[in-house]
Design a protein that fits this description.
Length: 330
């Protein structure tokens, strides 16, 4: 009699356990399906034991029943083999180091849209052995787009902060930053470069005679001539203030450097901008001071080189303008 009572008690407990298990399983499945993020869990072989509606509909575009009990390799119609290989590799990494895994990747969804997702995955274990993986996917596409837009605007603002508003050349701030980088690179790699200062001759007289509005147009024309002459990737052109421009560029030799400045000087004359004082020269001209920085030298600073090339520019002015004065810095 006691044995029958014990048997009934065991049967009652087993029924309660099974009912609880079914109830818990139903609760977990309901919880999974309520969560709007794609969720899944799969065993050690990669077979999906369960997934929620967000995963089946949004990611693969098929029913849960078509997914459960299969690996990604058994669903080639919805997931290309190369993607299945990638996900398997990530799973293996997690099984090799049981715990939590987090990574970001692009996912081609059921609607053929490519979205950015953060994967949060963890192993579930028994007696220290990883039996499978639970995963949840967080759609961060909007967040990524916001970051990209912010980055674009930051670059635009950075460009504006480095650009002279009138001529669209670099401004003095950008000039000093670029010059410092060129000197640092010279110290590391012995990459020679040239620095030139350009000043429009009699520009004050031009403004006084024709007005500042036409003076601004001349600045734009000269800036365009500078940019058209120095248009290589490593040519940097700046308006340093007023009618003064600065150039930083690489050349093969000091002869090439001088020839390039003479070409620029003649290109500006060829614009045939009427000069303020036509008795000196019929067209607007520029004076140029040119320095070739050929060796690394601890005394070479931006201010030192600027002041010395400025002296060359002053010599050009003093010797009659419309010419280039050059010096090599070694």
């Amino acid at each position: 009699m006691q044995n029958n009572n014990e048997k009934k008690e065991i049967e009652t407990q087993l029924k309660f356990f099974n009912d609880s298990l079914k109830s818990n399983n139903s609760f977990l499945q309901m919880l999974f399906d309520t969560v709007p993020n794609p969720m899944f869990y799969k065993d050690r072989s990669g077979k999906y034991l369960y997934c929620n509606n967000a995963f089946s509909k949004t990611i693969l575009g098929i029913t849960k029943e078509q997914i459960e009990g299969k690996t990604l390799f058994e669903l080639p119609e919805v997931i290309p083999k190369e993607y299945a290989e990638i996900y398997k590799q990530k799973d293996e990494e997690l099984f090799d180091n049981p715990g939590i895994q987090n990574y970001e990747t692009k996912v081609k969804c059921a609607d053929n849209e490519v979205r950015h997702y953060n994967f949060y995955k963890a192993t579930f274990q028994e007696d220290g052995v990883a039996l499978g993986i639970v995963g949840i996917m967080l759609d961060i596409t909007s967040y990524k787009k916001t970051l990209e837009e912010l980055d674009r605007k930051n670059k635009m603002l950075s460009g504006l902060s480095n650009t002279d508003f009138l001529t669209n050349l670099g401004n003095r701030r950008y000039f000093e930053t670029t010059f410092s980088k060129k000197l640092a690179y010279l110290n590391r790699s012995n990459q020679e470069f040239s620095f030139a200062l350009i000043d429009i001759d009699f520009f004050k007289d031009y403004n006084d005679k024709f007005g500042h509005q036409k003076g601004d147009k001349v600045l734009k024309k000269v800036a365009k001539a500078i940019r058209n002459t120095l248009n290589r990737e490593n040519d940097f052109c700046f308006r340093l203030g007023g009618e003064e421009f600065g150039l930083l560029f690489n050349t093969n030799s000091t002869e090439d450097s001088y020839a390039l400045m003479e070409k620029l000087r003649m290109n500006i004359i060829s614009k045939e901008i009427t000069a303020a004082n036509t008795s000196i020269y019929p067209y607007l001209t520029v004076s140029i001071g040119l320095g070739n920085i050929l060796k690394s030298n601890k005394n070479f600073t931006v201010s030192y080189l600027y002041n010395n090339v400025d002296k060359l520019l002053y010599e050009s002015k003093e010797k009659g303008r419309n010419q280039t004065r050059m010096k090599n810095f070694i």
